[in-house]
Amino acid sequence: MPSPIVLGAQQTGAGRPLVLVHGFPFDAEQWSEQLTTLAERRRVIAVDLRGRGRSTHAPNDDWTLDTHADDVARTLDDLGLARADVVGLSMGGYVAFALLRRHPGKVASLTLIDSKASADTAEARHGRDENARIVREHGTRALVPIMIPKLVAPSSPAWVSQKLAVMIERTPPATCIRDLMAMRDRPDSDPTSVRVPTLVLHGALDALMPVAAAHAMAAAIPGARFVEVPGSGHIACLENAPVVNQALASFLRELDGTAREESP
Ligand code: MLT
Predict the structure, then answer these.
(1) Which among 37, 43, 118, 178 is least buried, having the fewest CB atoms inside 10 angstroms?
(2) Please, what is the Cα angle at 237 between 180 and 135, to 5 degrees?
(3) Substitution candidate for ligand 1 out of 208, 232, 235 with most atoms within 8 A of CB
(4) What distance in angstroms lies between residue 21's CA and the mean position of ligand 1's atoms?
(5) Which of 99, 105, 33, 109 is nearest to 72 (CA)?
(6) SS3 56
(7) What is the three-class DSSP state of 228?
(8) Distance between CA 221 and CA 196 in Å, rounded?
(9) Atom 9, ligand 1: which residue's CA is nearest?
């Protein structure tokens, strides 16, 4: 059993809470272009998942994506927050689905960015094992030339790749390997079972997860809205922050309107 932990986080703003869950193999810094804008209408909590950034873990623990979801739920409890709007990018989206499964009351709304509901194919599982071997033998740094060309669109600014490389290099090898195994072993999630307001944002040029599949996932989630992010690959929050921030702001504004209508 993984040891229970509360996550470290960057926090800004005030009001209705919103949790940002980063992708693999990154940390809360992935949300640098969202923190200020989102803080205009939300208390923003950008967590570092266990084993990186401000979040520790017991050195011998293995973990699954359910462990990450339990950590997020425990962190909300620790902050005295009953529920939050949840935004997950890629692996962060897998964690958000696990949160919905395990702690449905904690999720007020869901935003999935460059993510998917389906489990790994056999080929993808093999790729996880291969990347884990590379990290074990050569360190996390070895993932930079393998991953970056697949993550960003060819036209994305150089600073995005540089920022991603810095985050990859500082993620401890043991953390990378555990995340790879956690993603490899994750189950399918069922988009038709989502019962909270949902926004799906997806880079038009995402080479890892085709935009058409994200569109189909959004169509399967009751009432979900879909926004294609032009010019962006797999890291839309950095590659085209203005479009992501505008779509999020409009979604959150609508949620605020609904909450006002519902209150007596
Ligand atoms: C991520 O950005 O979190 C990863 O690309 C997800 C994955 O490898 O499935």
Answers:
(1) 118
(2) 25
(3) 208
(4) 12
(5) 99
(6) coil
(7) strand
(8) 9
(9) 91
Atom of ligand 1 nearest to the CA of 23: 3
Beta-bridged to residue 89, according to DSSP, are: 113
**Residue 237 Cβ < 6 Å to ligand 1:** no
Closest to 102 measured CA to CA, from 128, 72, 129: 72
pLDDT attached to residue 264: 55
Place of tokens 């999630």: 189
pLDDT tens figures, 5-21: 889 999 999 999 999 99
Location of structure tokens 């949790």: 19
Averaged pLDDT for residues 132-145: 97
C-alpha span between 31 and 49 (Å, rounded): 13
Pocket flag, ligand 1, residue 208 (CB < 6 Å): yes
Report the separation in Å between the CA atom of 262 and the middle of ligand 1, taken as the mean of its atom positions: 36
